[in-house]
Structure formats: structure tokens, C-alpha cells
């Protein structure tokens, strides 16, 4: 049968999903979290453990905000 040679396009999961209006805000919150976490780990390892932990915890606030936006949508 000739049906085996036909090309069937694959549909991606996001093709039918509505565009996320808050995606830019979520991306910025993720970037702030990642930079803060990296800086916090570097400070923790290289300088002061207490200040490093505080920086990582402050960065986690941005991640919690991003996750909240994702779940409340």
C-alpha cells in the first residue's frame, strides 16, 4: 500500500495552546532567579556562608513568584 510513504506532520503540544501573555514576565523572573542563585552559590563557596544563603533565599522568592504565575493561570 502507498500509505506508508505519506508524510504525516507532527503536531507539537504548544501549537494549539493559547499564547501566554505573561511569558515575558515569567522569563524575566526566571533569569533573575538563575543569576541570583549562581551569585549566591559563588558567595557561599568563596566568601561567606551566611550571606550566600541569604542571597539564594532572596533568589528563591523570584522563583516562587514565577511558579505562582504559572499555576494561577
Walk me through what this model shows.
The protein is mostly helical and 73 residues long. The chain contains 2 helices and no strands. The protein has helices at 23-46, 49-72. Helix 1 runs antiparallel to helix 2.
Outline, from the CA principal axes? elongated
Q: How would you characterize the largest beta sheet?
A: none
As a whole number of angstroms, the C-alpha radius of gyration is 21 Å
Strand content: under 5%
- H/E topology pattern: HH
Span between termini? 47 Å
> How many strands in all?
0
Figure out the total of helices: 2
What percentage of residues falls in helices of 4 or more residues?
55-70%
> Which structural category fits the helices and strands?
mainly alpha
- Uncertain residue segments: none
Average pLDDT metric: 85
Oligomer: single chain
Amino acid at each position: 500500500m502507498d500509505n506508508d510513504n505519506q508524510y504525516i506532520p507532527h503536531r507539537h503540544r504548544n501549537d494549539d495552546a493559547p499564547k501566554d501573555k505573561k511569558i515575558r514576565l515569567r522569563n524575566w523572573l526566571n533569569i533573575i532567579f538563575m543569576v541570583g542563585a549562581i551569585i549566591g552559590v559563588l558567595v557561599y563557596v568563596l566568601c561567606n556562608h551566611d550571606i550566600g544563603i541569604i542571597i539564594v533565599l532572596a533568589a528563591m522568592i523570584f522563583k516562587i513568584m514565577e511558579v505562582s504565575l504559572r499555576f494561577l493561570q
